[in-house]
Amino acid sequence: MEDIYDVIILGAGPAGLSAGIYASRAKLKTLILNEGTVGGQVILTHEIANYPGVETTNGFQLINTMKKQANDFGCTIKANLNITGINLSDKIKEIEVNGTDKYRAKTVILAPGGKPRTLNIPGEEDFKGRGVSYCATCDGEFFTGKEVVVVGGGNSALEESVSLAKYASKLTIVHQFDHFQALPHYVDMAKNNPKINFIMSSELREIYGEASVKKVKIENLSTGQESELKTDGVFVFIGYSANVGKVADKVSLNSRTEIIVDKNMKTNIDGVYAAGDCIEKRYRQVTTAVADGTIAALSASNYLMNQNN
Amino acid sequence: MLMTNLEHVESADAHKKVLEENENVMICCGRMGPMCLPVYDIMDELKDTYKNVKFLDMDFDSPDAHVIRNAPECAGFMGLPFTMYYKNGKAVQATTSIQNMDQVNSILDEQFGKPE
Question: What is the pLDDT of residues A262-275, one digit of tens each?
């Protein structure tokens, strides 16, 4: 008979890895399953200067250390896989991976984090790397002297726009609202840049091109009128959402589709906990994710102890 | 400087040597950016599965990275990383921007054969 894990953790960001460290150090048989790259969003952070006890570091280094700690305590980590089935309702939980492999556990900690929003419009996937980008720092130089569209209105969108304007000949920010969510400082920087134009209350509907992006279709949300804009590139910075798609019909969520947990990180299902950016909370920091993961692991450990007694 | 668990290609000479000494080679040329890190991570995961393939990365900003930046297979690429697949020293496929595990697996299987 296959082994049953004490804890399966879905997600390998700071919350999932912290839960893995605590659970495996408590001698629980622990498995972390992660759909993408180990580390989650923090791995992209160039500088982390406010993680207590650690002088300035970067996300990659911090995550590599967490991963090593988890491994050293005996935690198994499997990443870059596809979770194809989740059964949380029975006493023994079951997770199916890649449509074939099944893993069973007495408790599950959900730590899937957040994921960048995409436009989900025709042309976006087809022109990825050929005009559609999600990183100005990475790809900005490919648009030197070219016209680009930036989608979004938060801090990232405006900050990245100013950065992109160093390369682009003309930059148009398309934002769905009539005002920006970004801090005034970022808005002022963008508004004071002569290369940057604004199309407000509008959304992209389609991206067209041949070998690379040539134009976009834009809908004015106030009037419903559609227009086309010639462009060489589309940069997408429309924020993150809780990555709860695969458990949305299994645990209780709030109106913002965040997992509802109690102070012990317990969900509405016995033996199922959640931690990190996927849960209902106000502040999303590495430190809060680590704290959530710690509490979830200790709660799972306590649950298992009570089950055994 | 790339901080990954992969072997790095540090120069054009090293690039040439790797291609001469290995039948099947995958090199991801990028930065420590959001589109690049997932590809490095996938390659790290696959190292033990595809033992017939040499997995490496190369810093896109290294001057010698012109061996990939300016490769004909990468013409028109506008998104990092540029990922090259070589068989017997010749480029057989190239991709631009982020790729997922299925996409990388599919290319490796097609170009170098499925792992035993």
Answer: 999 999 999 999 99
